[in-house]
């Protein structure tokens, strides 16, 4: 019996079903037999890929001789360890990201702060569409970037910072309060309204917890509800502004 | 936290108090998953070795500040590994995978060798494509399909629900397939 009724391409639900069948021991042939003809080629490629990934395990043989070396050097200082301080305001920058690339923590940290900064920053996301139509998901957020949310390997090399125009007065966006602050100040709202924006945007603040995905937190800000695109305005650019709001020692872990 | 992880707590506490031997035991337990984690993201064996060592040295340095917040110890090590890989990439800019087996082209290959060569090439393509996935997708695919961990374990490690992990795996696999196609075409063009 075909348990997939939808034809190409294989969707999330269908793929999850395939994985579940694989988990309970179904063979590739059994899984393929149950699929509509239209889906079999794609499913075959996906299943082959899983088999290939599984085979990678035996290719990765960790060396065992490192332990003695590591134990010998346990008390050495790490040469690359440095204690840098991010000064409030000094790291203010703007980057424009072109869709379909979503600024991830990886992107943002690359452009704004050194790695692993536990930083309180103000993040403002502005869609270019914002200036020609009512705001769609523009927001200002107070984030605390935790070390648990550091990286994403989105193809960073293909996300060049673009030109710099129509930047709101960022200084005025920086709230006085520190981490954990609650509602945005009236000044913040005023600032947004003053920037040639037709409607005051939704403004909120949030402390990003260490265990929370930055992208998850960011997505609602830039999500176009009319599409299923995750955190992306189709055919749009959006800008990200960050600034430290207090002096911050960088402490990796 | 699983029972196995709870059993680790005394060992972790000893290591936190500066006990080299306890840390050595943690190393022995966690080196392989950490090494694989790095390997998937770096691929240059010599560098993987160096980064893996650095991760454990950093972990040792940070042990005194380690707090058991109910997360698996491995998740903490993965965080250090992720940051260390990031540092590495900042320096390297381009991630090169050097694990294509080097063979003498003048020597004719037996069918079995050819099969192995094809397998290695395909694996390399998959690993290259893997580097272009999101962090979550890389984590889940590597942990599930390379490490062979259960969805429950992965759920604990990356602190997402099992359903979310399955969804990431599903989306990641399909994304991976999409990324492989252009890589295959590039490889073919280079060969011709």
Polypeptide structure, described:
- Chain A is built from seven helices and six strands.
- Chain A is flat, with a radius of gyration of 23 Å.
- Chain A is of the alpha+beta class and 253 residues long.
- Chain A starts with 11 loop residues before the first helix and ends with a strand.
- In chain A, the strands form two sheets. Chain A has a four-stranded antiparallel β-sheet with strand order 2-5-3-4, covered by helices on one side. In chain A, strands 1-6 form a two-stranded antiparallel ribbon.
- The model of chain A is unreliable at 1-6, 78-84, 98-238 and 248-253 (pLDDT under 50).
- With 192 residues, chain B is mainly alpha-helical.
- Helix content of chain B is 75%, strand content 0%.
- Chain B has eight helices and no strands.
- Chain B has helices at 3-16, 20-41, 45-62, 73-92, 111-130, 135-146, 151-158, 162-191.
- In chain B, helix 7 (151-158) crosses helix 8.
- Chain B is globular, with a radius of gyration of 19 Å.
- The termini of chain B are far apart.
- Residues 98-109 of chain B have low confidence and may be disordered.
- The chains are: A alpha+beta (253), B mainly alpha (192).
- At the A-B interface, helix 1, helix 3 and helix 4 of A face helix 2, helix 3, helix 4, helix 5 and helix 6 of B.
């Amino acid at each position: 019996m075909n348990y997939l009724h939808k034809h190409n391409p294989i969707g999330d639900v269908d793929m999850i079903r395939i994985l579940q069948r694989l988990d309970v021991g179904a063979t590739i042939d059994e899984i393929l037999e149950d699929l509509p003809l239209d889906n079999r080629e794609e499913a075959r490629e996906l299943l082959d890929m899983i088999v290939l990934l599984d085979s990678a395990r035996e290719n990765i043989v960790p060396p065992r001789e490192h332990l003695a070396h590591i134990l010998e050097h346990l008390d050495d200082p790490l040469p690359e360890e440095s204690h840098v301080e991010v000064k409030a305001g000094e790291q203010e920058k703007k980057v424009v990201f072109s869709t379909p690339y979503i600024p991830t923590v990886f992107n943002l940290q690359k452009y704004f702060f050194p790695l692993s900064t536990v930083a309180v920053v103000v993040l403002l996301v502005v869609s270019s569409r914002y200036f020609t139509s009512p705001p769609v998901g523009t927001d200002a957020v107070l984030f605390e970037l935790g070390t648990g949310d550091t990286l994403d390997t989105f193809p960073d090399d293909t996300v060049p910072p673009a030109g710099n125009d129509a930047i709101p007065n960022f200084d005025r966006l920086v709230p006085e309060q520190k981490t954990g602050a609650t509602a945005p100040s009236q000044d913040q709202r005023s600032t947004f309204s003053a920037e040639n924006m037709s409607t005051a945007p939704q403004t909120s603040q949030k402390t990003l917890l260490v265990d929370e995905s930055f992208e998850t937190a960011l997505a609602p800000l830039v999500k176009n509800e009319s599409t299923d695109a995750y955190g992306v305005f189709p055919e749009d650019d959006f800008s990200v502004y960050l600034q430290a709001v207090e002096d911050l020692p960088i402490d990796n872990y | 936290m699983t029972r196995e992880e709870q059993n680790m707590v005394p060992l972790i506490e000893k290591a936190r108090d500066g006990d080299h031997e306890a840390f050595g035991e943690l190393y022995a337990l966690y080196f392989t998953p950490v090494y694989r984690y790095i390997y998937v993201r770096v691929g240059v064996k010599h560098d993987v070795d160096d980064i893996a060592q650095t991760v454990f040295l950093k972990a040792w340095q940070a042990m005194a500040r380690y707090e058991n917040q109910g997360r698996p110890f491995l998740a903490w090590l993965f965080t250090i590994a992720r940051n260390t890989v990031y540092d590495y990439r900042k320096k390297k800019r381009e991630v090169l995978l050097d694990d294509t087996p080097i063979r003498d082209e003048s020597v004719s290959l037996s069918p079995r060798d050819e099969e192995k060569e094809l397998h290695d090439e395909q694996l390399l393509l998959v690993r290259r494509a893997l580097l272009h996935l999101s962090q979550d997708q890389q984590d889940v695919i590597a942990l599930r399909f390379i490490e062979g961990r259960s969805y429950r374990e992965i759920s604990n490690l990356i602190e997402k629900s099992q359903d979310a992990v399955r969804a990431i795996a599903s989306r990641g696999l399909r994304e991976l397939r999409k990324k492989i196609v252009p890589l295959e075409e590039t490889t073919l063009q280079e060969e011709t």
